[in-house]
Amino acid sequence: MKLTGSEIFVEALKREGVEVIFGIPGGVVLGLYDTLYRQDDIEVILTRHEQGATHAAEGYARATGKPGVVLVTSGPGATNTVTGLANANMDSVPIVVFTGQVSTGLIGNDAFQEADIVGISRPCTKYNYLVKDVNDLAQTIKEAFYIATSGRPGPVLIDIPKDVSQNKADYKPIDKVYIRSYNPTIQGNQWQIKRAAEAILRSKKPIIYAGGGVVSSNASSELKALAEAFHIPVCMTLLGLGGFPGTHPLSVGMLGMHGTYWANMAIHNSDLIIAIGSRFDDRVTGRVADFAPQAKIIHLDVDPTSIRKNIHVDIPIVGDAGHVLADLNKVLHAKGEGDWGKIREPWLKQVEEWKKKHPLTYRHDAKIIKPQYVIEKIYEITGGDAIVVTDVGQHQMWTAQYYKIDKPRRFLSSGGLGTMGYGLPAALGAQIAYPDDLVIEIAGDGSIQMNIQELATAVIYKLPVKVFIINNRYLGMVRQWQQLFYEGRYSASVLGQKPDFVKLAEAYGAAGLRAKEPNEVEGTIKEALKIKGPVVVDFVVNPTENVYPMVPAGGAINEMIFDDPVKAKEATSKKGKTEDSIQTA
Amino acid sequence: MKEEGNEHIISVLVENKSGVLSRVAGLFSGRGFNIESLCVGPTLDESVSMITIVTRGDERILEQITKHLNKLIDVVKVTDLSEREYLVRETALIKVNTRSEDRAEALRIADIFRARVVDSTFNTYTIEITGDPEKIEAIINLLRPLGIKELARTGRIAIAREELKAPSAGNGSRKAVMDMEG
Fold first, then answer.
1. Domain A190-354: which topology?
2. Per the confidence metrics, is the pTM higher than 0.95?
3. Does B74 touch chain A (CB under 8 A)?
4. How many Å is the Cα radius of gyration of chain B?
């Protein structure tokens, strides 16, 4: 049967089980969009910017575990996806991005809306293709989905020239894919797994350091089994949140630069770190030379290049977290007799003491809304049962600290790349995947404006995302660093009181609410959750609140600061004469 | 610029597709690894090419380089030849300015190195030399005082040495060639 490239494209996507495509049409992809118009199996979501389409696909993929799909035009359409590609590449999110390209005969001629997107995206994709012949299209699509979703997941880009989508070819459905030079290791080396088991049984002060790999390999239950059987505390990276229940007694929360004191102390003083699907990022390790000096390190990751990249590893295990943990649990189960609750007691008690020494705290204020208070209230009112999406900055760290995530794929954030503007479109992607779930986007007033146009997408497609803006009138994290390390010179970090987010929401056709005082916070959140459609809530918060605790850049992770240097002094000198009271999380 | 660590010769078998060289080169530049020499050529199997890369680094960097190369989808096989016995060769074409009084000297130098003169004009010789990098460096140094007009070098290629076995093992190597062709 002869089909056009466009028809092959749609057929191949259907075979991959694709239900939704995010994108924006343009000159060279009109044929592809026309074919999509004439079918009902795949829904097309028109975003307002290609970056929005890419992040929406990421949100969809992170929330479901299925690959997100994007279709955009050539030139600027294609280059606008680059930030999303880089983000997905850093955070191992499976997306497949289709870009239109000028006809094969014009490639290289600087034709209208031509960009060498394969060249541009090479370092920020897991793999990419330029399809020069319609006969290769079906095979290429099959390979792309396989590469995007297997091993360490990531973004794959397929560039389709206009004539390739118009030309006809015999279409044969492709069921199997084999790439001789690409065989991700899934099963771990049994000898190393045995060594890891022995190290775990010998260890007196172990800690599990769980990353995004736990979530993307669906290894949460195996991880829980391991932690519970041997009473091992679990700390998580930003992307690992939800990989282990945040409310579990063994959870010590997030580690790293803005992690909890007790997670960092536990890592620093441990004698064994069991790293699972994490990559010893600099935001996690702090000063590498002083990272966990007494600890042996077991590192389990599907990507061999993550192992020994930043940190020396004693027991490397390359493999899929779920498979390896299952094997490890089996070996441990056979060997690990003993009253582990009792054996671990001193260690867990020590961790508890660190927690008591420096819990997550902030100064409550009767007049000004504290951002941490907003997150706490959102957590309380939603009962922790929402898909939480964040942008990047202070609000992101506060959310990671104060909103405890209990289930995997319920916390979506831009980790490695730190992409402001990720949140709103990613929330839309998650809401499309789960129309009946409560999806909350917690944003800053800076980052929300980087993809604010997607509010139109939310309204048009009736996606009832609740956007909670922690509005401090600054690029808050930048301002915090300027205050702490640049003597308070707020160079280009002052946003000012613009725009009026309530009016802006209304202009887009969404509901807009505002809370200016602490006693309005609870009511406003409840009101927002009652509204059926998309809502934007503007929380006017304390402009100079900082995220603590904090490991200053270049510091070791046990060297944390807990308060503003000046404020700490004021608080002690006033001794309770102030309205401020210390509130404990 | 010379970096810390030992020199390593890595041979990388890659799919013979467009863009592959740029993926390999991009990996080195993007991750700050160093390339001292890079050479690409076909193999017996038309579907793959051989890239020979000379790089430098300590054990940790070399581990990362090999892992990252292996991670590239189009890379079929990575071998760090420096872990075993290997042969290394490079070819250079050296165009030497020769005044009449130097022409004999140029020929003598070529002769000492068993190099060949492949082109000759009234005031130049073009000398072809093949050998290990030290040999190439040596002849260049000797010819330099005469005046080198142009120099073209291929970059290094390398191949692992076979273990020395009794003559009956000869069939084995023949078989190996056939395997590669199949």
1. Rossmann fold (3.40.50)
2. no
3. yes
4. 20
Q: What is the pairing mode between strands A315-318 and A296-301?
A: parallel
> A254 an active-site residue?
no
Rounded-to-10 torsion of CA A191, A194, A196, A197: 170
Contact between A78 and A72 (Cβ < 8 Å): yes
Q: How far is the C-alpha of A79 from the C-alpha of A99, rounded, in Å?
A: 9
A267: closest CA among A223, A311, A216? Answer: A311
Q: Where in the sequence of chain A do the CATH 3.40.50.1220 domains occur?
A: 190-354
Catalytic, A291? Answer: no
According to DSSP, the β-strands at A315-318 and A511-515 are unpaired
pLDDT more than 70, % of chain A:
97
Query: For A424-455, what is each residue's pLDDT tens digit?
Result: 999 999 999 999 999 999 999 999 999 999 99
Q: Where in chain A is the domain with CATH 3.40.50.970?
A: 2-170, 361-584
Residue of chain A whose Cα is closest to the Cα of B25: A123
| pLDDT single digits (tens) A103-147 | 999 999 999 999 999 999 999 999 999 999 999 999 999 999 999
The active-site residue, picked from A113, A139, A166, A453, is A113
* Chain A touched by B64 (CB under 8 Å): yes
- Amino acid at the residue B144: R
Q: If you count residue pairs, one on A and one on B, with CB atoms under 8 Å apart, how many are there?
A: 34
Q: What is the pLDDT of residues B90-131, one digit of tens each?
A: 999 999 999 888 899 999 999 999 999 999 999 999 999 999
Cα of B160 to nearest chain A Cα, Å:
22
| Domain A361-584 bears CATH identifier 2.170.130.10 | no
| CATH number for the domain running over A2-170 | 3.40.50.970
Does B1 lie at the interface with A, CB-CB under 8 angstroms? no
Q: What share of chain B is helix, strand, coil (3-state, %, to 5)?
A: 40, 35, 25
